Amino acid sequence: MSIVRMHRCDPGFDMLEATGVVQRSFTDDATLPGRLVDNAAGFILVGPQDNAMIEAARVTGIPCVRIGPAPHALYPMDQVGAADREAMAVVADHLLRLGHRAFVYVHGRPGYPGRIDRLQGFAAAIAKTEGTSLRELSFPDDDEAGDFRTLMEPLLAADFQPTAFFCGNDGVAVTVLSELLRLGIKVPEQVSVVGFADYPIAARVSPRLTTIHSPHREMGAAAVQIIRARMEQPPEGADLPPMRLDLVGRLVTRESTAAASNSAAVWEPL
């Protein structure tokens, strides 16, 4: 994982990323926070990591902010995230208005808590509309689908013919887009694809991806503000409970989504 270490300076703050030595990379070395604490004003924990790393930062006693999912409900650490449940409702509404009723949620590499949360939010949103159905797919890795045709065969054999794929992030969506085009399926004329995060690649593929823009830069800025506030709060506020801050993203509509097509005409030739 990556830990952002903040040194207090006069008049402001400097930030750097650190593992055992200062570098831009990820580590699960849970001894790292303890080794850095004497020279740190606070920790910002970014990206996927195991719970031991997060807990190791928390028990140092200095201000810590987690950007992303907490280890468990009511975990006692300040946390910055995005309003993903609301975003999933917006994605669902967009696709439902286009006439889609059969969906596949593509995790990419399985097991990431944020992607599981997005699946649950999307499933809850489409369940409010009669006649919808949802299936799941996972890949060996985000950019490696394996044999996509083979993955789809059990769904098609069960007479499930999707017209829209919603993906755990934009990288996964690009993989899905590539695999669909490899099978001769046109996007969005026959099948729609939606990503998540609005990474730069979302606007560089063809067709460009409809996606949720997640405010990543703003999350980092908010985390810094929280640490600053924790450092500067008066003694009477020192026992304030941990806070949760969810920033609001937005739907970016591009060319990878369109009105639902005749699904039988898409999948039966396969």
UniProtKB/TrEMBL annotation:
Keywords: DNA-binding, Transcription, Transcription regulation
Protein name: LacI family transcriptional regulator
Any GO molecular function: transcription cis-regulatory region binding
Organism in which the protein naturally occurs: Devosia ginsengisoli
Classification via Pfam families: Peripla_BP_3
Domain Transcriptional regulator LacI/GalR-like sensor: start-end pairs: 92-257
PANTHER family in alphabetical order: HTH-TYPE TRANSCRIPTIONAL REGULATOR GALS, LACI-RELATED TRANSCRIPTIONAL REPRESSOR
SUPFAM superfamilies: Periplasmic binding protein-like I
CDD domains recorded: PBP1_LacI_sugar_binding-like
